[in-house]
Amino acid sequence: MVALGFRSPEGLGAALGEGLVPLRYADDVGRPTETYPLNPNGSKGGVAALCSPCGRHLAIMPHPERGVTPWQWGWWPPAWGRPTARGWCLGAGLAIKDSG
């Protein structure tokens, strides 16, 4: 993969076909998207990460560590109420660091 794409048009299809794309930017209904701001870098097919065939190595474009606390998130569901520090110790962005 190179900046915003693959070296050849077949690259994306091969990566998807081999199961090497574990994360994709998605729209509100879960479809991969290339549309900003849902996909901040415009990557083809919404690719947000690539992994090695064995799954041991992960290269990720998003920065989950930048969403450690809820008030750092770019979007907040209105039904959740106003984001405050009370009741929050760790956000979802930090959970990825504690997963393995």
Q: What's the order of the H and E elements?
A: HEEEH
Provide the gyration radius in Å: 16 Å
What share of residues are in beta strands?
A: 5-15%
Task: Give the total of beta strands.
Answer: 3
GO molecular function: phosphoribosylformylglycinamidine synthase activity
Protein name: Phosphoribosylformylglycinamidine synthase
Organism: Calidris pygmaea (Spoon-billed sandpiper)
InterPro entries: Class_I_gatase-like
Fill in the keyword field for this structure.
little secondary structure; 2 helices; 3 strands; 10% strand; Class_I_gatase-like; Phosphoribosylformylglycinamidine synthase
Descriptive report:
This protein has 2 helices and 3 strands; from the N terminus they run αβββα. The protein is 13% helix and 10% strand. A hairpin with a 6-residue loop joins β2 (47-51) and β3. It has 2 domains: 1-62, no CATH class; 63-100, no CATH class. The relative contact order is 0.14. It has 100 residues and is low in regular secondary structure. The chain is globular, with a radius of gyration of 16 Å. It has a 3-stranded antiparallel β-sheet, with no helix packed on it.
Sum this structure up briefly.
By secondary structure, the protein is low in regular secondary structure. The protein is 13% helix and 10% strand.
Question: How are the SSEs ordered, and which strands pair?
Answer:
Blueprint: H1 9-17, E1 23-24, E2 47-51, E3 58-60, H2 92-95
Antiparallel strand pairs: 1-2, 2-3
